[in-house]
Each structure stands twice: as structure tokens, then as C-alpha cells.
Automatic annotation (TrEMBL):
Belongs to the NAD(P)-dependent epimerase/dehydratase family. dTDP-glucose dehydratase subfamily. GO terms for molecular function: dTDP-glucose 4,6-dehydratase activity. This is dTDP-glucose 4,6-dehydratase. SUPFAM superfamilies: NAD(P)-binding Rossmann-fold domains. Residues 4-324 form the NAD(P)-binding domain. The gene is rfbB.
Length: 353
């Protein structure tokens, strides 16, 4: 038995693969294009592990996907592969259309052909699990209830619009062809191997290297944070117990303003690795120009997943952020590796005054 994971060298995909193989012996075929966000070092601990097969390639390469399906006969395909950074989708949306929409479509087509040829029993047991985001629901006002699965889709960025399109395609493959699909819509993740273009790892990295901690606009935007291993456990739960055709919201009940998040990181660093001049890292905070179309608030109502499938997050924001800061302090070599080269060009272009 095996599963195919796409995007398994990225932040959440790598955490998922590592957690999966730590918990059971079922092989993982990991298909990843290795864009700037994919990093084989995330999977270094699996280098001699025969249960992990890494294949560099594109989910939009229908022939390659068909070959992998024929060769490994997986019982499930889990689609993590995506362009994932909202700011990059604003400065260059094309790659988001290609991978998130065209790529998901090609992957679905290859999986449909494979699935249709399976014997009846295997056909009903097969699952296509699509990993999506809460951003498809748009932005909430301060008093609005948290997103439920029944909320209408109102994506506001090229990133969220491309994810919304992929979610719709996934849904259509169940309704039209009967492919047993599952979709998860998760809130903001954080934890080990998070690429330092995103708020939490960027702030930790910039703090430790004496750089500005850039806060967009007034810093009062709200995100609902979930420690990455809790997202991984939610995906395992949905894969095992989810009902085909259903979507499941995943979140940590941890709504925080961006400014609160950055202040919390500074407080932890002030204790764990105080600045040599004795000042707080908060003195490095700088308010910068806002993200265009910046969504004000996301909040996830995860009660369907909790009540129907019995999932619960193990970490609070307090425990998860402590672990995360510790991980970055202990893994500076990983940070140094990913912040060399092309990373610098992105930071220069994005944060130019
Ligand atoms: P990431 O950017 O860290 O990793 C994406 C991975 O996909 C990389 O390894 C990259 O090389 C690979 N990839 C990109 N294009 C590919 C292609 N065409 N073919 C094969 N591989 C390709 O992203 P992440 O934060 O780990 O997010 C993973 C998934 O979870 C995405 O679908 C994202 O939309 C979703 N998601 C992310 C969050 C979050 O907070 N990070 C929250 C909810 C949902
Ligand atoms: O909600 C789930 C989504 O969370 C995922 O689907 C995306 O893939 C993931 O990137 C994340 O999107 P966000 O845009 O919320 O994450 P990001 O870390 O880029 O930003 C978090 C908040 O912090 C957001 O309000 C923008 C703000 N921000 C971000 C950066 C990079 C800043 O204030 N300064 C920054 O430098």
C-alpha cells in the first residue's frame, strides 16, 4: 500500500510526510517540482528510508503523473502542491494559475483515468484529498461569525482565487465522475520548515539578524493560527474518516492580530536569545505599506471536523509559538541555506521603500 503526496518538499507537505512515516509504514511517493519553496533538506532524515520515494516533477505533467500512478498503484493522492504566497501572487499571478488551476486539473485528469480502471472494491476505497485554504471564503468583519463550510466563496487575491478555482474543479470531479474527493480548508499554519517569506518565520529571521520587522498597514489584521502538526493530524483524520464529497474546515481557534503575533515572538526571543544591547526586539518593528487588497480577518469554525470526525488540535498558540521559535533557534543552518540566493532578490523587491 502507498499514497502519493504532491508538494511534499514544501512547508506543510514535508511536515506531513515526516509525521506520516513516523506513525506508520505505508510508503509515500513524493512528487514535488522543487520550486523556490521546495527543499529536499526538509526531508534529509528520510534519505535512507525505503518507505519514501522522492520524484522531482510537476503535477501538470500528465504523463509523469500517469506513470507514477501505474507504477505505485496508490490507494490515495494528497495534493499539497501549490504556489502559496499571497504577496508573490500579487506581483506575479501567472505561476499561480499554472500550478494551482492547470496543475490541479491535469492531476485530477490523470487520477480520474487511473481510478476509473481500478477494480470496484479499490475504486470505492480510493481517495483524492485536496489541501486548500480558508482564504477562499474572503474576508470577515470584526463581528462576523467564523467561516463555516457553507460560507460562499469570495476570494480576493490571485492566490485565493486560484485555490478557489482548484477547489471547484475537485468538487466537480466528484459530482460529474464520482471520483471520491475530500477537501480541507485550513487557516494559517506555522512551525518547523516554514519558508521565511511568511510572517512568522520572516519575523524570527529578521529579528535575529538585526533587520526591520515589517508590519503591513496598521497590523490589526487577524489570522487564525494552527501549529503545522495539528494540520497534519487533521489531514490524516479526514483521509481516514472523511466522507467523499465533503469539505472540512481546519483551524486552531487562535485568532490573533499580526501585531500581537509579532510582539509575542519578540517577547519569546527577549528571553530565549536576548539582544546584546539589552533592548527588546520590539524596537525593530517597522510599519510598512499595506498589501493591496489585504484581507482584514480570517477565522475558522472547525466544529464539523471536531464533532463528526473527532479531531482536536494538540497545541495552543502559546505552546506552538514557543516550539516554533525554539526550532528556528536550533536550526540556523536550515535558515541560512534557504535565505541565500534567490530569496534575497525577493526580499529586496518586496520590501523596497
Ligand atoms: P509551500 O509553498 O511551502 O510548498 C509548496 C510545495 O509545492 C513546494 O515544495 C513546491 O516545490 C511544490 N510545488 C509548487 N508547484 C508545484 C508543481 N507544479 N508541481 C509539483 N510541486 C509543486 O506551501 P505550503 O505552505 O506548504 O502549503 C501547502 C498547501 O497547503 C498549499 O496547497 C496551500 O495552498 C495550502 N495551505 C497552506 C497554508 C499555510 O498557512 N501555509 C494554510 C492552508 C492551506
Ligand atoms: O489563511 C491561510 C493562508 O495563510 C494560506 O493559504 C497561505 O498559503 C499562507 O501563506 C497564509 O497566507 P497569509 O497571507 O495570511 O500569510 P502571510 O504569512 O503572508 O501573512 C500573514 C499576515 O501578516 C497577513 O495579514 C499579512 C501580514 N504580513 C505578512 C508579511 C510577509 C505582514 O504584516 N508583514 C509581512 O512582512
Amino acid at each position: 500500500m502507498s499514497i502519493i503526496v504532491t508538494g511534499g518538499a514544501g512547508f506543510i507537505g514535508a511536515n506531513f510526510v515526516l509525521d506520516w512515516l513516523a506513525q506508520n509504514d505505508e510508503a509515500v511517493i513524493n512528487l514535488d517540482k522543487l520550486t523556490y519553496a521546495g527543499n529536499r533538506n526538509n526531508l534529509r532524515s528520510l534519505v535512507d528510508d525505503a518507505r519514501h520515494v522522492f520524484v522531482q516533477g510537476d503535477i501538470a505533467d500528465a504523463e509523469l503523473v500517469a506513470r507514477l500512478l501505474r507504477q505505485y498503484q496508490p490507494r490515495a493522492v494528497l495534493n499539497f502542491a501549490a504556489e502559496s504566497h499571497v504577496d508573490r501572487s500579487i506581483s506575479g499571478p501567472e505561476a499561480f494559475i499554472q500550478t494551482n488551476i492547470v496543475g490541479t486539473f491535469r492531476l485530477l485528469e490523470a487520477v480520474r483515468a487511473y481510478w476509473q480502471a481500478l477494480p470496484e472494491e479499490e475504486k470505492s476505497a480510493f481517495r483524492f484529498l485536496h489541501v486548500s485554504t480558508d482564504e477562499v471564503y474572503g474576508s470577515l468583519g470584526t463581528q462576523d461569525p467564523a467561516f463555516k463550510e457553507s460560507n460562499p466563496y469570495e476570494p480576493n487575491s490571485p492566490y485565493s482565487a486560484s485555490k478557489a478555482a482548484s477547489d471547484h474543479l475537485v468538487r466537480a470531479y466528484l459530482h460529474t465522475y464520482g471520483l471520491p474527493v475530500l477537501t480541507t480548508n485550513c487557516s494559517n499554519n506555522y512551525g518547523p520548515y516554514h519558508f521565511p517569506e511568511k510572517l512568522i518565520p520572516l519575523v524570527i529571521h529578521n529579528a535575529l539578524t538585526g533587520k526591520a520587522l515589517p508590519i503591513y498597514g496598521d497590523g490589526q489584521q487577524v489570522r487564525d493560527w494552527l501549529y503545522v502538526s495539528d494540520h497534519c493530524s487533521a489531514i490524516r483524520t479526514v483521509l481516514k474518516h472523511g466522507r467523499p464529497g465533503e469539505t472540512y474546515n481546519v483551524g486552531g481557534w487562535n485568532e490573533k492580530t499580526n501585531l500581537d503575533v509579532v510582539n509575542t515572538i519578540c517577547n519569546i526571543l527577549d528571553v530565549e536569545q536576548p539582544r546584546v544591547d539589552g533592548e527588546s526586539y520590539k524596537t525593530q518593528i517597522v510599519f510598512v505599506k499595506d498589501r493591496p487588497g489585504h484581507d482584514r480577518r480570517y477565522a475558522i469554525d472547525a466544529s464539523k471536523l471536531e464533532k463528526e470526525l473527532g479531531w482536536k488540535p494538540a497545541e495552543t498558540f502559546d505552546t506552538g509559538i514557543q516550539k516554533t521559535v525554539r526550532w528556528y533557534l536550533d536550526n540556523q543552518a536550515w535558515v541560512d541555506d534557504v535565505t541565500s540566493g534567490a530569496y534575497r532578490n525577493w526580499i529586496q523587491a518586496q520590501y523596497a521603500a
